[in-house]
Amino acid sequence: MLTVADNLKMGAYLRPARHVYAESLERVFALFPVLAERRRQRAGSLSGGEQQMLAVGRALMSRPKLVLLDEPSMGLAPVIVLRLFDLIRRVREEGYTILVVEQNVRQVLKLVDRAYLLEAGHLKMEGRAAELADQDFIRKAYVGL
Fold this sequence. Notes:
Largest sheet: 2 strands, parallel
Number of strands: 4
Strand order of the largest sheet: 1-2
Distance between the termini: 44 Å
């Protein structure tokens, strides 16, 4: 089984990423200090939230133009979800473009610039996140207010 460090190294597999490996590793460890602390630990032994951080960190090692996150909060305790979204916010502030597919509407609307609400595979609403968060339909159906 791979360690945290092995997983991050796998993220820098492509040739262009290998040239900036040390810099990328430093950047990921700055964003996710817990990964630096656990670099020699087996990745499978991390908590669910730490595994999500590792997945994001591994993706960042390749210096992507776009980071895709599919249900990053699924299966995580509410307190860990808050931490994870804060970390995603920090990654976004680093200049990365992030596309998030998420059912936790309350948290994701605080994170994104634009949102698209899909219902049964069809686009139901779209717009700036702040505008959608103010919609009665969204607040009642998805945010619980």
